């Protein structure tokens, strides 16, 4: 069954959508549903499927991607397939959902101001196909695609029956940096995929030319936020701040105070990761004031969690624990289980920092149970990683390794290559600490291959440094030199502190080799 803990759409609107599908005995029922967050779109599809099953209506979901963006041909292909035939056999009616995925319109097509993207051209050309389609059709699209269809595929847009919007479920602590920057939405995406999505958002923004309708002004603000989130994920912090600031100006013009507060939290996480903690606190406090004025306890709880996290970074554990407690109360009042799981993890980390390991593990176990209940694999993995840290601190290396290996399996299942790399490094470091050099080298070798595959030169350099240190520890100086020279090549020009560190290692190694040479031949011949 679908998760019904939070609505995916206003109840009256959802009922109207289901009723429209149920009563559509004639061709051409076309509903456009706008929604952005992948988790919300998945929940909408699951909830709609459950509701239609009660009416003996089957649901066929058709993903529309960059590779398959001709919607009419795609629909025609799927309604001639076996899955559709089975739904027809077992239900009195079948409805279709075309899941138009973010990135289905290539960025280069959007960037050309004189070009109508191919997918939109095909919508117009296939107007008659959709007019005669004998099955109710729900077109689930990102908001910028809806705006582009309205402007550039008007022949298709005019035949739509109705439009709806999803309630964008913003997690209470969505902007908290440790969770958000590793969220499942981004986890499986490479840097190149994120850059392509960023190009798409910037191109869509460029298409929004004045005069803008009120809906398009709202869309512009939301696109600025999403572009800022990707810049932040890519480590382009000042670029992210510029986009967030533009979004805040737009949201204030629209008098969208909740959106303003959420974006201020995003800005705070940028300053937090940059180490500008005072500015981060000021931004979070501004956000907190807005949420309290709105009476939004969920937003208040999430922001209190963010503020507590900054105080924890500043080393003020008692203040952090107090704020986490206030956050937990607010989030439990609003039945925000996801936020509750994150806050329990934050409280556990305070106890871990202060050496109360048993209490930390109890809270991590509570947090883990919530994430498993919600099916949040990423939250589960992050909590297991924290529990492994507790075991490691207590010298329980076997228990820590077992958790790291389970983590590795989850990250590989999610396709989160960056977290897979971090976990391999944790395994390698722990194996090295235990003196199991072959196992450590094997894990670091896997990490190195992954960094090279991802084009992560910084990660590649750090891994090579660690492999060199391992070789140095077992007195294989030739291997250490090779690793460190490779590390220097990988780090060259990145402007990271590890570059100076590896140069120092190589200088020390050179000095040791010279000293060894003098010991072997203390009186070299003159001339």
Question: Could you characterize what this model shows?
Answer:
- This protein has 527 residues and is mainly alpha-helical.
- Helix content is 70%, strand content 6%.
- It has helices at 11-23, 38-53, 71-78, 82-90, 107-111, 118-125, 127-131, 143-152, 154-158, 177-180, 184-187, 191-207, 214-233, 237-253, 257-273, 277-294, 297-313, 317-333, 337-353, 357-374, 377-393, 397-414, 417-433, 437-454, 457-473, 477-491, 497-520; strands at 30-34, 57-64, 93-100, 137-141, 162-165.
- The protein has a 5-stranded parallel beta sheet, with helices on both faces.
- It starts with 10 loop residues before the first helix and ends in a 7-residue tail after the last helix.
Binned, the helix content reads over 70%
Task: Compute the number of helices.
Answer: 27
Strand content: 5-15%
CA-to-CA gap between the ends? 88 Å
In terms of per-residue confidence, which ranges show pLDDT below 50 for 5 or more consecutive residues?
1-5, 169-182
C-alpha Rg (nearest Å): 27 Å
How many E strands?
5
* Structural class category: mainly alpha
Largest sheet: 5 strands, parallel
Sheet with most strands: strand arrangement: 2-3-4-1-5
Mean of all residue-level pLDDT scores: 88
> Which of globular, elongated, flat, extended, rod-shaped describes the shape?
globular
């Amino acid at each position: 069954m679908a998760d019904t803990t939070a609505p995916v759409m206003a109840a009256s609107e959802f009922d109207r959508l289901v009723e429209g599908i149920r009563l559509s005995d004639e061709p051409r029922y076309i509903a456009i549903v706008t929604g952005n967050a992948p988790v919300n779109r998945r929940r909408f599809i699951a909830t709609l499927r459950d509701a239609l099953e009660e009416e003996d209506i089957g649901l066929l979901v058709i993903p529309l991607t960059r590779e398959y963006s001709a919607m009419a041909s795609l629909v025609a292909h799927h309604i001639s397939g076996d899955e559709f035939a089975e739904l027809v056999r077992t239900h009195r009616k079948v409805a279709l959902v075309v899941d138009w995925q973010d990135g289905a319109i290539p960025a280069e097509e959007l960037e050309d101001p004189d070009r109508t993207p191919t997918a939109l051209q095909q919508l117009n050309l296939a107007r008659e196909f959709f007019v005669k389609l004998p099955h109710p059709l729900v077109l689930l699209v990102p908001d910028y695609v809806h705006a582009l269809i309205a402007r550039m595929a008007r022949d298709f847009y005019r035949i739509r029956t109705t439009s709806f919007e999803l309630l964008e479920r913003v997690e209470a602590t969505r902007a908290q940096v440790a969770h958000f920057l590793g969220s499942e939405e981004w986890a499986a995406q490479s840097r190149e995929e994120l850059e392509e999505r960023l190009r798409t958002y910037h191109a869509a923004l460029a298409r929004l030319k004045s005069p803008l309708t009120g809906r398009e002004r709202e869309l512009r603000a939301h696109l600025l936020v999403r572009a800022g989130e990707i810049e932040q994920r890519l480590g382009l912090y000042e670029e992210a701040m510029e986009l967030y600031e533009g979004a805040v100006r737009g949201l204030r013009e629209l008098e969208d105070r909740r959106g303003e507060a959420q974006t201020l939290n995003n800005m705070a996480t940028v300053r937090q990761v940059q180490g500008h903690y005072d500015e981060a606190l000021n931004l979070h406090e501004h956000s907190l004031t807005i949420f309290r004025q709105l009476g939004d306890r969920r937003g208040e709880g999430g922001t209190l969690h963010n503020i507590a996290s900054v105080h924890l970074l500043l080393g003020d554990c008692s203040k952090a624990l107090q704020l986490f407690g206030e956050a937990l109360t607010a989030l439990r009042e609003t039945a925000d289980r996801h936020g509750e799981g994150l806050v329990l993890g934050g409280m556990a980390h305070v106890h871990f920092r202060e050496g109360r390991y048993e209490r930390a593990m109890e809270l991590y176990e509570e947090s883990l149970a919530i994430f498993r209940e919600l099916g949040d694999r990423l939250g589960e993995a992050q909590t297991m990683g924290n529990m492994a840290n507790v075991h490691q601190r207590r010298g329980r290396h076997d228990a820590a390794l077992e958790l790291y290996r389970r983590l590795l399996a989850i990250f590989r299942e999610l396709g989160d290559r960056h977290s897979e790399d971090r976990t391999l490094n944790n395994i390698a470091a722990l194996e090295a600490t235990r003196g199991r050099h072959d196992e450590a080298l094997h894990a670091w070798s896997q990490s190195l291959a992954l960094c090279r595959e991802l084009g992560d030169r910084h990660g590649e350099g750090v891994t090579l440094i660690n492999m060199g240190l391992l070789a140095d520890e077992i007195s294989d100086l030739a291997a250490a030199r090779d690793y460190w020279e490779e590390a220097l090549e990988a780090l060259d020009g990145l402007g990271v502190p590890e570059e100076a560190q590896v140069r120092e290692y190589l200088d020390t190694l050179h000095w040791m080799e010279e000293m060894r040479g003098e010991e072997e031949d203390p009186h070299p011949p003159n001339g």
